[in-house]
Amino acid sequence: MSASALFGNYARSALEFDHGEGVWLVTKDGRRFLDCGSGIAVNVVGHSHPHLVEALKLQAEKLWHVSNLHKLPEQERLGARLAEATFADRVFFCNSGAEAMEAAIKTARRFHFDQGNPERFHIVTFEGAFHGRTLGTIAAGGQAKYLEGFGPKAPGFDQVPAGDLEALKSVIGPQTAAIAIEPVQGEGGIREIPTEFLRQLRSLCDDEGILLILDEIQSGVGRTGKLFAHEWAGISPDIMAIAKGIGGGFPMGACLATDAAAAGMVPGTHGTTFGGNPLAMAVGNAVLDVVLADGFLETVRSSGLVFKQKLAGLVDEHPHVFSEVRGSGLMLGIKCAAPVADVVTAARDADLLAVPAGDNVLRILPPLTINEDEIAEAVARLEKAAHALEGRLTLEGAAE
Ligand SMILES: *Cc1c(COP(=O)(O)O)cnc(C)c1O
């Protein structure tokens, strides 16, 4: 392997992409990969979407950055549109998912501080959660593999098994500020939190004066066929972190909140130099133009059904490779019977990109613009990968 000047924190494939078009990623030598990973649920409208390219180019010729010392009309506009389309009254823009979650945690703690309860700073989170890689969000996620070697875990996070209401009630006390949950665990393996549990969380929070934080960084911006996944449960949070899809590939995140929940975030309490800059806002507004257009989310729902059905057929035919399909909309997962790392590699050899997750799950997160022909092609490529793996399994079996 050639020497690299970069940190060794990623186990990268050797693929180098030159450009992208819709659901396709093309290497320098012209090999075309079907992208069912979307750069980890980011490229919601595909690669090089003309409307996004145009928005970014126009903005680039006008103004890039002025900081949050001044009023930013494009930021006001995107904030107002997000508020209009959701439960939220207030929006804070940042640059990534982890920062959006940090803002959510700080907003919840500051709310209780503002109410004269500075001792209420604990956040309850769930096993299998992923909230980012900052010191605060690894403590929130609570996964040993991400905490190890980085000093003491930041205090104020209590973790319980997902879906366990009794365990949850047992950790809630006068110290509890908020409950934070992903409505669909992404990194955890496309694990959908049951609607009933989300409703129970909402009423528990209401009864106890606790804030509900939703991490929709992966599940949001149309991924499940609603603008946000919690809409399926008919509940709304007090605070929500978003990122990934809202930038369509431009790095950005946001923390959304009700007026009441955001009340403590007065001048000086929080900030970011880059967050919400004109380039990011131009792209974010362009993403919303597409995702909020008539019929877009309906199409995501019907594409998701078609895709899931075809994947279920694939699982039936290849029980030694795949064992179960999960998820909804275009946030799908296949629990694998073979090691997921091998499935990812075999899929890549068949010119299809997908993303591994916890629980031995292969994540299928294509651009939301994927059409039925492309879905059929994706399934054909996964089939090819399954055949290759079965061939290998047979050889291994014969060698034993
Ligand atoms: C990706 C992700 C994050 C972290 O986002 P970054 O942009 O990588 O910091 C947090 N929560 C969830 C649910 C995610 O999927």
Automatic annotation (TrEMBL):
<dbReference type="InterPro" id="IPR050103">
    <property type="entry name" value="Class-III_PLP-dep_AT"/>
</dbReference>
<dbReference type="GO" id="GO:0030170">
    <property type="term" value="F:pyridoxal phosphate binding"/>
</dbReference>
<dbReference type="InterPro" id="IPR015421">
    <property type="entry name" value="PyrdxlP-dep_Trfase_major"/>
</dbReference>
<dbReference type="GO" id="GO:0006526">
    <property type="term" value="P:L-arginine biosynthetic process"/>
</dbReference>
<protein>
    <recommendedName>
        <fullName>Acetylornithine aminotransferase</fullName>
        <ecNumber>2.6.1.11</ecNumber>
    </recommendedName>
</protein>
<feature type="binding site">
    <location>
        <begin position="215"/>
        <end position="218"/>
    </location>
    <ligand>
        <name>pyridoxal 5'-phosphate</name>
    </ligand>
</feature>
<comment type="subunit">
    <text>Homodimer.</text>
</comment>
<dbReference type="InterPro" id="IPR005814">
    <property type="entry name" value="Aminotrans_3"/>
</dbReference>
<feature type="modified residue" description="N6-(pyridoxal phosphate)lysine">
    <location>
        <position position="244"/>
    </location>
</feature>
<dbReference type="InterPro" id="IPR015424">
    <property type="entry name" value="PyrdxlP-dep_Trfase"/>
</dbReference>
<keyword id="KW-0028">Amino-acid biosynthesis</keyword>
<dbReference type="InterPro" id="IPR049704">
    <property type="entry name" value="Aminotrans_3_PPA_site"/>
</dbReference>
<feature type="binding site">
    <location>
        <begin position="97"/>
        <end position="98"/>
    </location>
    <ligand>
        <name>pyridoxal 5'-phosphate</name>
    </ligand>
</feature>
<feature type="binding site">
    <location>
        <position position="272"/>
    </location>
    <ligand>
        <name>N(2)-acetyl-L-ornithine</name>
    </ligand>
</feature>
<feature type="binding site">
    <location>
        <position position="133"/>
    </location>
    <ligand>
        <name>N(2)-acetyl-L-ornithine</name>
    </ligand>
</feature>
<dbReference type="GO" id="GO:0003992">
    <property type="term" value="F:N2-acetyl-L-ornithine:2-oxoglutarate 5-aminotransferase activity"/>
</dbReference>
<dbReference type="GO" id="GO:0005737">
    <property type="term" value="C:cytoplasm"/>
</dbReference>
<dbReference type="GO" id="GO:0042802">
    <property type="term" value="F:identical protein binding"/>
</dbReference>
<dbReference type="Pfam" id="PF00202">
    <property type="entry name" value="Aminotran_3"/>
</dbReference>
<dbReference type="InterPro" id="IPR004636">
    <property type="entry name" value="AcOrn/SuccOrn_fam"/>
</dbReference>
<comment type="similarity">
    <text>Belongs to the class-III pyridoxal-phosphate-dependent aminotransferase family. ArgD subfamily.</text>
</comment>
<keyword id="KW-0808">Transferase</keyword>
<keyword id="KW-0963">Cytoplasm</keyword>
<keyword id="KW-0663">Pyridoxal phosphate</keyword>
<keyword id="KW-0055">Arginine biosynthesis</keyword>
<feature type="binding site">
    <location>
        <position position="273"/>
    </location>
    <ligand>
        <name>pyridoxal 5'-phosphate</name>
    </ligand>
</feature>
<dbReference type="InterPro" id="IPR015422">
    <property type="entry name" value="PyrdxlP-dep_Trfase_small"/>
</dbReference>
<feature type="binding site">
    <location>
        <position position="130"/>
    </location>
    <ligand>
        <name>pyridoxal 5'-phosphate</name>
    </ligand>
</feature>
<comment type="pathway">
    <text>Amino-acid biosynthesis; L-arginine biosynthesis; N(2)-acetyl-L-ornithine from L-glutamate: step 4/4.</text>
</comment>
<keyword id="KW-0032">Aminotransferase</keyword>
